[in-house]
Amino acid sequence: MATSDTNEGNRVAAVVKTLDILEALWQAEGAGVTALTERTGLAKSTVHAHLTTLRSKGYVVQEGDEYRLSLRFLSFGEHVKHAEPLYAASDGPITELSERVGERVLCSTHQNGLGTIINVSEGTRAFTSDIDIGTHTYLHSSAAGKVILAHFAEERIDEIIAEWGLPAFTDETITDRETLFEELAAVREEGVAYNHGEYLPGISAIAAPILDNDGTVYGAVSVTGPQHRLENEWEENELRTQLLSTANTIEVNVMFS
Known about the structure:
Elements: H1 13-28, H2 33-40, H3 44-56, E1 60-63, E2 66-69, H4 72-83, H5 85-101, E3 104-111, E4 114-121, E5 136-137, H6 143-149, H7 154-164, H8 177-190, E6 193-196, E7 203-211, E8 217-226, H9 227-230, H10 233-255
Antiparallel strand pairs: 1-2, 3-4, 3-8, 4-5, 6-7, 7-8
Helix pairs in contact: 2-3, 5-10
Pfam family, one: HTH_IclR
Domain IclR-ED: 72-256
InterPro entries: ArsR-like_HTH, GAF-like_dom_sf, HTH_MetabolicPath_Reg, Tscrpt_reg_IclR_C, Tscrpt_reg_IclR_N, WH-like_DNA-bd_sf, WH_DNA-bd_sf
């Protein structure tokens, strides 16, 4: 996912380059200097210098001519995951829901105008996907993201659009502000949001918000699966009831955590 250019003048160029290299290493699952130069657009000498520094600090490891992220990042990931209240609060409820419906159940939160998957439970007929814990998503293109946006003030939504845009992922993705706001109004009225192949072709989802007592949105819980299963009217209505119950259980868990 591309980074936002907001507050470009305040960014430290060396830090941006380091992060670009780390992200390229992560995406490539390991690469040499030449491949990283092509991926980042940085000079080969710059890539090598940053890799040498990262290696000296233990953040990358080198095997021959290839570099990859070190296990040191595990401690960061585990710390961030367990520090997020929704992770523990959602674990039991989404497991129970995925066992009942057989589909993939996700718990998402939001940060800096983007969505992040915080927990995942796989049902017995869940489809294979590389969307997992830690995956960042644009809020306008997913059911979970839309149900989160529906609980933001209009001003905040406009800020997010200005920062991240409304990029298209499929032919079904909402890409204009007016259509998005119309859908968010419908989400607020119905209490859940839908995704009809808007992020991945042939994949649908239904999501419910996870709210604080004052209506502040923590995140969302969603069920996702093939369109031919989730868009069946009976199952969709049944899923809505079960989903809202799961979201409420997570809300209670967060409240007493």
